[in-house]
Design a protein that fits this description.
Mean pLDDT: 78
Number of helices: 12
CATH topology of the domain at 3-176: Beta-Lactamase
Shape: rod-shaped
Strand content: 15-25%
CATH architecture of the domain at 3-176: 2-Layer Sandwich
Order of helices and strands: HHEEHEEHHHHHHEHEEHHEE
Radius of gyration: 54 Å
Low-confidence stretches: 91-99
Largest sheet: 5 strands, mixed
Strand order of the largest sheet: 5-6-7-9-8
Distance between the termini: 47 Å
Length: 443
């Protein structure tokens, strides 16, 4: 069920509840009005009869008073009233029994709801001129019920028409203002399919307009992230291919030529007809030298692929070894390394990521910073009650502008490594004031 239908159904139920409450209220008021009207009419009629009887002089003939009573008993069509006269012998006059609400125009259900309790007033009129006479006044609410039904019917019809028109207006209005949701859903479908160039228009409703703005911002961020990921993937492939080319070159230049030289020395020794012991010893020493060279080349290649000291002695020792080797090769720049409170049970994945980040940082410092000092600190700290590894690399070089910080020199790859471990990667730099990289990775 759509949101539009659900909202309209809810509003319809509210209108129905309003209609029912209003109906009960109107009918309750009609019931009170009918009861009050018929009781008031009966009391008023009794008072008028008493006044009429008492206004006749005591000297008046008995026939005159009997005419007054006959006139009262003949008022069959009196509004709201049925009057009966009883003589002392209890003979009913007129000779017509009373039956209440026979010709009501209102429907039966309304009559049952508003009909008041039967109202009957009995009085004996005493006068010196005539014998005691009984007067029975019964209230007949038929006319009053018909009048109230006419009013209630008009109110209920008007209320029903209002509810129907209001419901239609609400349905149309909701449909009009929820129409942009289809556009939002279409945009989300486009995002799901990878179309990050979509933009939603501005909407008149403030809430939907804010959704549109947030959607457009999300699309831009996803588009930028996609571009960065593509750039990072391309850079990774370039590095991979460069590494393969370098390994292939080393295998050809170092291992290939050295093995060829060993083979040549061995062949010359075998093919020499007069090989003496001294010549054989010289050839074997040459083969040993070439073998040592092959071993050193292979060792360097394996170290470049993955440092064995990292697996054997842990992250700190691997970093110390790498930084010492790096310092031994540099004359104009020196790296200071300090660490504290480092756990020894970090995961292999985290160890290699931290190692490569430091390695890339030193490469960037050497290539781009023109620095004379580098400070690397590594320690365990607490952030928000959780243990983190804190790595800080700081140099005193020329620094970078903001654009270079966000896009250049392998920094996206370093940031990607940190985010893979749910960490935080922060770079601060100013031109001429060096660059600082701070990394926080939860353990």
């Amino acid at each position: 069920m759509s949101l539009r239908i659900r909202l309209n159904l809810l509003i319809t139920l509210l209108f129905i509840g309003l209609f029912i409450c209003s109906s009960f209220y109107v009918i309750a008021n009609a019931r009170k009005a009918v009861q009050h009207e018929v009781e008031s009419t009966a009391q008023l009629a009794l008072q008028l009869i008493q006044i009429a009887i008492s206004s006749v002089s005591m000297e008046a003939e008995e026939q005159d008073k009997l005419k007054i009573l006959d006139s009262l008993s003949s008022l069959d069509e009196t509004r709201h009233l049925r009057i009966e006269i009883r003589n002392p012998a209890d003979v009913l006059m007129p000779d017509e029994e009373f039956s209440i609400i026979e010709n009501a125009k209102a429907p039966d259900w309304f009559v049952k709801l508003v009909q008041p309790p039967p109202t009957e007033i009995r009085r004996w009129l005493n006068s010196p001129a005539i014998a005691p006479t009984g007067v029975i006044i019964r209230a007949d609410p038929t006319d009053e019920i018909d009048e109230n039904w006419s009013e209630v019917r008009s109110i209920l019809i008007a209320l029903s028409v209002f509810i129907v028109l209001a419901n239609m207006l609400v349905y149309i209005t909701i449909g009009k203002y929820l129409a942009p949701i289809k556009t939002v859903l279409a945009g989300l479908s486009g995002i799901e399919q990878g179309n990050y160039q979509l933009e939603l228009p501005h909407f008149r409703l403030p809430e939907l307009d804010r959704i549109s703005q947030q959607f457009n911002h999300m699309a831009r961020v996803l588009s930028e992230s996609k571009a960065k990921n593509q750039l990072l993937t391309q850079r990774s492939l370039e590095i991979q291919e460069e590494e393969r080319r370098h390994l292939a070159q080393e295998l050809h230049d170092e291992l290939g030529q050295t093995i060829a030289a060993i083979k040549a020395v061995a062949a010359a020794t075998i093919n020499s007809p007069e090989s003496d012991q001294k010549q054989v010893t010289t050839s074997l020493n040459t083969i040993i030298e070439y073998s040592d060279h092959i071993y050193q080349v292979a060792k360097n290649m394996m170290s470049r692929l993955r440092p064995s000291v990292l697996d054997e002695f842990g992250l700190v020792k691997a970093l110390q070894t790498m930084i010492d080797d790096w310092n031994s090769l540099q004359d104009d720049i020196f790296c200071h390394f300090s660490f504290s409170n480092m756990p020894s049970d970090l995961s292999d994945s985290l160890n290699i990521h931290l190692f490569r980040i430091v390695q890339e940082s030193l490469t960037n410092v050497l290539k781009h910073s023109s620095a004379s000092k580098v400070f690397i600190t590594l320690n365990k700290t607490k952030c928000s009650g959780i243990d983190h590894i804190h790595l800080k690399v700081q140099d005193d070089g020329i620094g970078l502008d903001e654009q270079a910080v966000t896009t250049g020199m392998g920094l996206p790859g370093m940031k990607e490594r940190v985010e893979m471990n749910d960490g935080v990667f922060v770079i601060t730099s100013e031109v001429g004031k060096g660059l600082t990289i701070e990394i926080y990775i939860p353990i």
